[in-house]
Amino acid sequence: MRSAGPAAAGGRALAGAAGLAAELAARIGAGARFAGLMAARREDRLLLSAHLAVPGGMETVEVALPSGAASYPALTPAVGAAFWYERQIHDLFGVVPAGHPRLEPLILPAHGEAAPRPWPGPGAAGPEPGGIWPDEHSLPRRVMGAGLFTIPHGPVRSGVTESVEYLIETPGEDIPHLNMRVFYKHRGVEKRFEGMTAGDGVLLAERAEGVASVAHALAFCHAIERIAGVTVPRPAALVRVLHAELERIAAHLDAGARLAEAAGLAVATARLAAHKERVLRLAGQMCGSRFGRGVVVPGGVAALPRLGPAEVRAQAGALEQAVSADARALMGTASFLDRLRDTGPLRPERAREHGALGPVGRASGFADDARLARPYDGYLALRAGEPAVEASGDALARLRVRWHEVGQSFRLVGQAAGELARLPAGPVRVTCPAGDGRAVGWAEAPAGEVLYDVRMTGGVIERCWPRSPSFHNLVLLHEVFAGDILTDFPFIEASFGLSAAGVAL
Amino acid sequence: MRRRPPGGRASPWVLRGLRDGVVTTRWPGRPDGYSDAWRGPAVLTAPLPAGAAGDLAGICPTGAIRPGPDGVVRLDRGRCILCGRCAERRPAEFGWSRGSAAAVVSREALVVPVTAETERSVGQVRAALRARTAALRRSVHVRHVDAGSDGSEEQEIAALLNPVYDVHRLGIFFTASPRHADVLLVTGAGAHGMAEPLRRTWEGMPDPKVVIAVGTDACGGGLLADSYATSGGIGSVIDVDVWLPGSPPPPFAILHALLLAIGRLPGGSGYGSGERAGGMAQ
Questions:
Q1: Could A188 and B230 be called an inter-chain contact, meaning their C-beta atoms sit closer than 8 Å?
Q2: Could you tell me the pLDDT band of residue B282, with boundaries at 50, 70 and 90?
Q3: A211 and A104, same structural domain?
Q4: Partner B contacted by A111 (CB < 8 A)
Q5: A252 at B interface, C-beta within 8 A
Q6: For residue B12, is it within any domain?
Q7: A197 and A112 in a common domain
Q8: Same domain as B169, residue B78
């Protein structure tokens, strides 16, 4: 892994949690992007670390809570984007962010049969341990009035979808408020990392969010490689790009197919789904896994693709022609565009304030692409071109961004395969010594930036914090239903393109 | 942006739909090379030497290789996440399976070499399943529940509806309501949060009904088998009839499992393809 600039993973300790809130607010005001908040137990103290994305790298601002502290002043009032992060930390550690506007359980429901939190709080001062068995009968409601009711949509929904529950509060057609319960499929991934070697950890990272297997593996390995201080060989850096971009194309085609399906365009749905199948088969031919699993390993890649670079390039070229023709036809179908235009708009100010990731952010004018702003692996030398940015922030803008990115991804695949063909034969991985240390790694998944904060001690993972773009972006779904009605729901959900697996982890 | 002219003309999609001809597979009626090519869960290619437990411990990240109560070291294919480490480090004894016929009708049949007892019972289990699902043989409605997957299994199940697999041609349809469902496809490691919704979906289905555990996580929990938040597979939450390992299993393997569940595959052994699960290596 090349160092991504002098700012990479710097750490700063502050006096107290109140100081942390002020520091974060000032840094975000000065242009940094809030990228996440995590906690870790260090001996008897809780360490809160906030990650800030800046050009060239990530900066970490952190504060150690006093020994035995059961609460701290919440950051959310000053840093709105910390809203879900503080609830997550409360669920997992039991520490109370005092003054948090809505400290409901997020990933561990606190009702029913008691089960210990994965990292229990410091004794008597802490809250009751939460259970992980949800109470089916409690239905939170926010909007009150005559004729208002709640549609509990999920966790088992129509179609083949992941388990998440949307509580739609409605007078019948409009959606004045939407609530979400994401805890149903919480799997305990974060805790499971502990004690694993880096080699095993990458297997779990690939399964943290299956539709972004390559991006999660990359972000995890970037952290490991930064700790070890190694740079992956050039062929490995290019193979990583090939798989990461195929993953992006498949995910964007899936989002397009879901939107077409929501509009009842059967032929468009079928054609986009068939293209996606061809992309997955290409990835499968290259490495044996349709999702690119087993390719990325700490220190490089497991092997060169079984398909020669020329063949990869030829197949990708043919695919690009087929995909772009159908994308053009779709974007010329007026009845389809009418359903997307002005649907689910995310205001640019909110996108910037929250640091909205991936196509959701870029469709609202907030262009932060880790491949360009904090490049890694093959992206350091390849030319993807300008990031796709739209201003209107609606479902249509999000789809436009996706088609733009599909074109870029095909170009990157062509460039990477071309360069791979010219490289002399050489090793595809270097040994990654299992040194102690802590580092942050990142990668741009189809839905946006994946972040991993990893601390290695004695050759195994002491603490690993994976943050998927789905977790960061899903909370914005609260805010995009201005004036939209029930039948807009599938469009808005599909246009976000998120995976529930990455939210509850 | 091109606008459709007023007065209208035939939608471009009618012609686009005809553009590539028929892309749909003929499988299972005719062989399909892609179905045969899947590199599936690990298999034993040679008997494991007695007393090998010590050497083999630690190779498998999910602990799928371990001695049973009788002291024989076995490979639990229901825990295999297809990382390939065993085949790489001990190529004399481990290999990849080939082809989509990975589903079996009992959890024990995934643990190879199978015991003599499993060998005896598995044919009966399949016959009983066949008898129970006789009414479903021509057309079947399928419901899916995610019980804590990583999200990839859903993609592969949804792929069954794309024109390449197009399961409608086989009389297989997906349904929104459990009341209309004959088959339940369950993915994921059995997250505690989904235990009750899963049970209630299952209870809502009319008899006869069949449950298929789709993917290694559903069969044995995979890497999350020992997590505080999962049951290590769905087997302890509801009764499972067909077990399909894979991380994730591809569409052909899921289709194979569906046909096995409703008794539409030739061959009468307890294993999906009429082959012995332990002897599928190539």
A1: yes
A2: very low
A3: no
A4: no
A5: no
A6: no
A7: no
A8: no
The partner residue sitting opposite B176, judged by closest CB among A116, A158, A162, is A158
Q: How many CA atoms lie within 13 A of A476 on its CB side?
A: 32
| Set of chain B residues whose Cβ sits within 8 Å of the Cβ of A288 | 39, 84
User: Is this prediction's pTM over 0.80?
Assistant: yes
Whether A294 contacts chain B with CB within 8 A: yes
Which residues of A fall within a CB distance of 8 Å from B229? Answer: 132, 186-188
Does B193 lie in the same domain as B93?
A: no
Q: How many domains does chain B have?
A: 2
Looking at the fold, whether A339 and A201 belong to one and the same domain comes out as: yes
Q: Which one of A135, A157, A181, A185 makes the best mutation probe of the B interface by having the most chain B beta carbons within 10 Å?
A: A185
| B126 and B255 assigned to the same domain | yes
Pick the residue of B39, B223, B252 with the most A CBs within 10 A to test the interface with A by mutation. B223
Omega cis (within 30) before A155: yes
Q: Same domain, yes or no, for A215 and A332? A: yes
Residue B208: cis peptide before it, omega within 30 degrees of 0: yes
Separation of first and last alpha carbons in chain A: 26
The residue from B98, B129, B152 where one domain ends is: B98
The beta-carbon neighbor of B191 closest among A157, A186, A208 is: A186
Q: A443-494 pLDDT, tens per residue?
A: 999 999 999 999 999 999 999 999 999 999 999 998 898 778 899 999 999 9
Q: Is residue B57 located within the same domain as residue B115?
A: no
Other beta carbons within 10 Å of A303? 16
Q: Is the ipTM of this complex over 0.90?
A: yes
Shared domain check, A325 and A453: yes
Distances (CA, A) of B207 to B179, B231, B236, B263: 10, 25, 20, 16
Interatomic CA distance for residues A86 and A195, integer angstroms:
25
Supply the pLDDT for residue A137: 58
Sheet strands (E) in chain B: 39-44, 65-67, 73-76, 94-98, 111-112, 140-146, 172-174, 183-187, 210-214, 242-244
Of A104, A125, A146, the domain-final residue: A125
Q: Are A239 and A283 in contact (CB under 8 A)?
A: no
Q: Would you say residue A284 lies in a domain?
A: yes
Interchain CB distance below 8 Å, A203 and B81: yes
Chain B nearest C-alpha distance from A491 (Å): 18
- Tokens found for residue B43: 């298999």
Residues B156 and B255 in one domain: yes
Q: What is the CATH number of the domain that holds A115?
A: 3.30.460.80
Enclosing domain of residue A228: 192-474
Three-state DSSP at B58 gives coil
Nearest CB among A159, A284, A329 relative to B16 is that of A329
In a domain, B3, yes or no: no
| Domain range enclosing B165 | 107-272
Residue ranges in chain A modelled with pLDDT below 70: 1-15, 109-116, 121-142
Question: Are residues A199 and A112 part of one domain?
Answer: no
Q: Do A156 and B201 touch (CB under 8 A)?
A: yes
Q: How far is A24 from chain B (nearest CA, A)?
A: 32
| Minimum-distance CB partner of B16 among A115, A200, A267 | A267
Whether residue A460 contacts residue A195, with contact meaning beta carbons closer than 8 Å, is answered with: yes
